[in-house]
Specification:
Layout (H helix, E strand, L loop, with lengths): L5 H18 L9 E4 L5 E6 L5 E8 L13 H7 L10 H10 L3 E6 L4 E8 L3 H13 L5 H18 L3 H14 L12 H6 L2 H11 L5 E7 L3 H12 L21 E7 L5 E9 L8 H12 L5 H9 L6 E5 L7 E9 L3 H18 L3 H19 L3 H13 L5 H4 L1 H7 L2 H11 L5 E7 L1 H8 L5 E6 L6
Helix pairs in contact: 1-13, 2-8, 4-9, 10-13, 10-17, 11-12
Length: 465
């Protein structure tokens, strides 16, 4: 038998796997129909008969960046109050109507959009859509419900500060973005929430919740022609002017190093984030960035988790990621460690980042990352009706073509070593970094001072972030 040198065998193995991946079937969006009502509402309908369910998502193109200064958290409260009372139903009646149908209803307020989602059994969709439309188009924002929710949000915020990991990203966004709208807390802070009135909620709804500002996506077990009629009946008479589009400035990346130390006197561990301004959702290099990030910090066997957890045991987990928004979201590396090993963990994080730049990846690494991405993409993005509704909503919100999904596998396969190297150089900052540490300042301050010339300190008990 002829012996094949290991290096040749390895090359053959990579070639075989690469060919198999290239031959693997891609993912395609199922057929759907996009229309618009006369009042300007975008409507996207996708039949999916795999389960007797219907998922609904209504997305408004106004997010938390529309909150007035000093009243951050307004969009979040307004959205949450949608289910607390309408012209026909009070809060209890809405809950009973949802529960009796085995239905779900939830809301979310982000930087770029606010959303309401629901799921009903297909047999209940006529009544379910009627209830959903009632909550979105006829809310009354009862005074007692507003007061109760605002108090709950303030209490929840104070409680969240008992857990560093719960508020770490909020401090990071605030410190990283400075005076940019993305620096403002999406859920508000202790002072801004207290300043919000029911009148503010009414103004927020009137200004942002309009059909011309909305994207309605429905996915599930229905006949498209029947659903079109129902949507027209439930939403066609909704009249409200569209708000003026918010023009977000391009955020400025951090130059050099700056560090925020948030003092939590009872902390036995340090939670930290390191990063900078990242990329927007439409960045043409986003697929190459994703391939690189999977290898660097996007899975259990990534570089950063291997260094900080698997090999050194300094933490139970370390990861990296990009939040891609209308304008550049953040890039971040995050982990936690015992107070005594804070300096060592930070050093190892930066050493691993330096290794990424100096060594890069091999063809075998890329094959592994591509297989991981293609294997996990369908179940995390396209498997359920809710996931499909969210994907379709995002395409409309960010003005992306269907090829963002339909050509995704091909784009992943096409990432080369040269493209990966450029992504590392351009999007994974090495010298210009923003640090946020939450921990016991008296114990970790000496470590923090070694990593940035500019250090800012604040107590976690102080209002805001």
């Amino acid at each position: 038998m002829i012996s094949i040198p290991k290096i040749i065998a390895k090359a053959l193995c990579i070639a075989v796997i690469s060919q198999a991946l290239a031959a693997a079937p891609g993912v395609k969006l199922p057929p759907y129909k996009k229309t618009a009502l006369k009042n300007g509402m975008t409507v996207v309908l996708m039949e999916q008969r795999k389960a007797p369910l219907v998922d609904i998502q209504l997305t408004f193109r106004s997010g938390t960046t529309s909150d007035p200064e000093g009243k951050e958290g307004l969009a979040d409260i307004t959205n949450d109050l949608l289910r607390k009372g309408t012209k026909k139903y009070n809060s209890l009646q809405i809950s009973e109507a949802l529960d009796s149908r085995g239905a779900t209803f939830s809301t979310y307020a982000g930087f770029d959009s606010t959303r309401a989602t629901a799921q009903f059994m297909a047999k209940d969709i006529a009544g379910g859509l009627d209830l959903f439309a009632e909550m979105l188009t006829q809310p009354t924002f009862p005074e007692d419900e507003f007061n109760k929710l605002r108090a709950q949000n303030i209490d929840a915020l104070r409680s969240a500060k008992d857990s560093a990991i719960s508020v770490l990203s909020r401090y990071y966004f605030s410190f990283l973005y400075g005076d940019h709208p993305y620096a403002r807390p999406q859920g508000g802070d202790e002072n801004s929430l207290a300043a919000i009135t029911r009148g503010d909620v009414l103004k927020c709804y009137a200004s942002n919740y309009s059909p011309a500002n909305a994207i309605l996506v429905i996915v599930g077990d229905f006949k498209t022609s029947d659903m079109e009629k129902m949507v027209s009946q439930k939403f066609g008479n909704w009249k409200q002017n569209a708000p003026k589009a918010i023009e977000l400035p391009k955020p400025s990346p951090v130059k050099g190093q700056k560090l925020l130390l948030v003092d939590k006197p009872d902390a036995t561990q340090t939670y930290f984030v390191i990063g900078n301004i990242g990329v927007e959702r439409t960045n043409p290099d986003r697929v190459a960035i994703e391939v690189v990030n999977i290898l660097f910090g996007g899975r259990f066997t990534s570089m950063i988790n291997t260094a900080l957890r698997i090999k050194s045991g300094l933490t139970y987990g370390a990861s990296s990621g990009f939040a891609m928004n209308k304008v550049a979201g953040p890039f971040l590396i995050s982990s936690f460690t015992a107070n005594a090993t804070t300096e060592k963990a930070l050093e190892l994080t930066l050493e691993t980042l330096k290794e990424l730049h100096e060594k890069g990846f091999t063809e075998e690494d890329l094959v592994s990352a591509k297989a991981y991405i293609k294997g996990t993409y369908p179940p995390r993005a396209l498997e359920t009706g809710a996931q499909l509704a969210s994907r379709l909503s995002d395409l409309q919100l960010y003005g992306l073509p269907d090829s963002d999904v339909n050509d995704y596998y091909a784009k992943v396969d096409a990432v080369t070593l040269d493209e990966a190297s450029r992504a590392i150089k351009n999007y994974f900052p090495l010298d210009d970094l923003c640090f946020v540490l939450i921990g016991k300042a008296d114990e970790i301050r000496p470590a923090a001072e070694k990593f940035a010339g500019e250090i800012k300190e604040k107590s976690i008990s102080e209002p805001g972030f």
